[in-house]
Design a protein that fits this description.
Blueprint lengths: L6 H18 L15 E2 L8 E3 L1 H9 L3 H10 L7 E7 L3 E6 L1 H14 L13 E5 L14 H16 L3 E8 L4 H17 L14 H14 L9 H26 L6 E4 L1 H5 L2 H11 L3 E4 L2 E4 L8 E4 L14 H15 L4 E7 L6 H10 L7 E6 L2 E5 L2 E2 L12 H8 L1 H8 L8 E4 H4 L7 H21 L16 H11 L1 H11 L4 H19 L10 H24 L9
Parallel strand pairs: 5-6, 5-11, 6-7, 11-12, 13-15
Antiparallel strand pairs: 1-2, 2-4, 3-4, 8-9, 9-10, 13-14
Helix pairs in contact: 1-3, 2-3, 4-17, 4-20, 6-7, 6-8, 10-11, 11-12, 13-14, 16-19, 16-20, 17-19, 17-20, 19-20
Length: 568
């Protein structure tokens, strides 16, 4: 038995073995043994470390009191080195207490595993794509995309640690009316720099960054676009040029947050390659496309009403502007799953896209794609607070705070940690004042300070002449605070599995905070390095424990894309 294996899974297997053995011995009537026996960490130490309620569910099947079933199961649990005691509790729980000596010995295993501690083989190499951020490239990346960026990036890291082959992708919306309005906005400012008055588009982008792009265009192209015979073509070319410049800035700004992508995928390529036409033909052949009111609609029994794919030319004259977001989403989905062969495609979308999910799912069903291959994570928005007051922003009006400005003000680590402190289905308040506060009230400071404190302990021990890499007698790690810290360190594989299965990276912030708290308690309650000669071996064991805690805490921080500082 290796301690790198998920303890919860190991105990689940023990219970299954006990159920099978009890039936074979005639102590239990025949029954279908659950494939996945539920096991949870106990809330109270008096109930051991882990507990299973499986006997409560079996009472009706076996027509026996759950407490009697629990007593029978407990009697048939195999003896293993890591379990010290198996007990039962009313109304029918089977409780497991870990062996303290075995728990202490796990320090060596954690140190040997190093940066791979906590890795699990859940994914078995399955290919997963996580597509996130994907903000319209018509302006700088704003703080409105920060939560999306952090959720997607940390989720990708969690899945990689869980044994999946993961790719990060940014979907570039470089087609449609927004791009044309963006190009027209640049063109208007560009013309003004040459003394010409070209009306600014009604749905244009008034931000100062558009003027900056116009200046760059003037410096690069002179007046060439004003001399062009086809103004629409000039607007289109300037729009595409502007998008590339914006994307360069977006990539740089996201990198300051520690977010990088494997692929930047062009929406326009779906049309230029003919894939959109191919998908439309497939849907039409299956009876999922109808023409009505001059528009092309997607029809499916799973939808309450038809969804527009291509708008009527009577409403939108420009053919490039007529396809809807759904029209692009369908070939993009096909490209991901059928052409590039990802086993699963994960979309990280804001709450304003919630209504798009059933339409994409219905399109997948219409095209014969299994629904479980598409996963949508819908997150709620972030409210930015300063001085207790909400900061209001609007990208369309040009009034916003860029991601780069936020990183420059508070740093990447507070952003990443605080964006993960709530489940995605609730609105998150981001307190700018708290983010820069150097106190235990700031959750990222509290966690990172634990890592810094460990580094300080090891540094001072070395300065005092201790060999911090020397082994000690780990059996001496019996203090309750030592054991509590060890148990928290051992639970990282369980946390990773839960986060990967539920696609919920917020579990890492909770875990990191609890781990930091456990180390701070150990530091408070146990003198790590003693000056007493008789305590030398205990000091060496505690230095080993401190090093192992540093490994696990660093691992948790780096999974969240954060620094594990040696000094603060």
């Amino acid at each position: 038995m290796s301690v790198t294996i998920n303890l919860r899974e190991c105990i689940s297997d023990l219970v299954r073995s006990a159920l099978v053995a009890a039936q074979e011995a005639g102590a239990l009537a025949p029954l279908d043994v659950p494939q996945d026996v539920p096991v949870e960490q106990s809330r109270h130490t008096s109930h051991g470390d882990y507990s299973t309620p499986v006997c409560l569910g079996l009472a009706r099947v076996l027509k026996r009191a759950p407490l009697q079933i629990a007593q029978t199961v407990a009697a048939y649990v195999p003896s293993v080195p890591y379990i010290a005691e198996v007990t039962v509790a009313a109304p029918g729980f089977v409780n497991f207490t870990l062996d303290p000596v075995w728990v202490a010995s796990s320090v060596s295993t954690i140190l040997a595993a190093g940066d791979t501690w906590g890795d699990i083989a859940l994914g078995a190499g399955a290919r997963v794509q996580v597509e996130f951020v994907s903000a319209n490239p018509t302006g700088p990346i704003t703080i409105g995309s920060a939560r999306n960026a952090v959720i997607g990036d940390v989720l990708a890291s969690v899945l990689a640690a869980a044994g999946y082959s993961v790719e990060r992708e940014y979907y570039v919306n470089d087609a449609g009316s927004k791009v044309r309005n963006f190009g027209a906005s640049i063109y208007s400012r560009y013309a003004a720099l040459h003394g010409l008055d070209v009306p600014f588009p009604e749905q244009g982008y008034p931000g100062a960054y558009v003027t900056e792009l116009a200046i760059r265009a003037r410096d690069s192209f002179g007046s060439a676009y004003l001399a062009a015979d086809d103004r629409e073509a000039a607007v289109r070319e300037l729009g595409q040029w502007g998008i590339q410049r914006v994307l360069e800035t977006v990539a740089e700004d996201l990198a300051t947050l520690g977010v990088r992508f494997d692929t930047w995928f062009s929406e326009r390529s779906l049309y230029d390659s003919g894939l959109f036409d191919e998908m439309l033909a497939k849907l039409r052949a299956g009876g999922f496309v109808v023409e009505r009111d001059g528009a092309t609609w997607f029809r499916h029994d799973d939808l309450e009403k038809d969804a527009v794919l291509v708008r009527s030319e009577r409403v939108i004259p420009n053919p490039e502007d007529r396809p809807t977001y759904l029209a692009s989403d369908i070939p993009y989905m096909w490209n991901k799953l059928m052409l590039r062969g990802f086993d699963r495609a994960i979309y990280v979308w804001g709450a304003d896209h919630h209504g798009d999910v059933p339409r994409v799912q219905a399109a997948a069903k219409a095209l014969g794609i299994a629904g479980d291959r598409l996963v949508f994570i819908i997150y709620q928005m972030v409210t930015m607070l300063r001085g207790g007051e909400e900061i209001r922003m609007s990208k369309s009006s040009g009034e916003f705070i860029t991601l780069r400005e936020l990183v420059d003000e508070v740093g990447p680590d507070p952003i990443r940690f605080m964006m993960l402190t709530r489940t995605v289905d609730v609105t998150l308040d981001f307190d700018l004042d708290l983010a820069v506060e150097q106190s235990d009230r700031n959750p990222v400071f509290y966690v990172q300070y634990a890592h810094t404190r460990i580094a300080g302990v090891l540094r001072r021990a070395e300065e005092a002449g201790w060999d911090v890499l020397e082994s000690g007698d780990l059996r001496q790690l019996t203090h309750p605070s030592e054991q509590a810290l060890l148990r928290k360190m051992l639970s990282l594989p369980e946390i990773l599995k839960v986060a990967a299965q539920s696609l919920a990276p917020h579990h890492l912030t909770t875990y990191a905070t609890e781990l930091a708290s456990a180390f701070h308690a150990f530091y408070r309650d146990c003198r790590i390095v003693s000056s007493e000669p008789d305590d030398a071996d205990l000091s060496r064991a505690r230095l080993m424990l401190a090093r192992a805690a540093q490994v696990v805490l660093s691992r948790a921080l780096r999974l969240m894309g954060m620094d594990a500082p040696e000094r603060m």
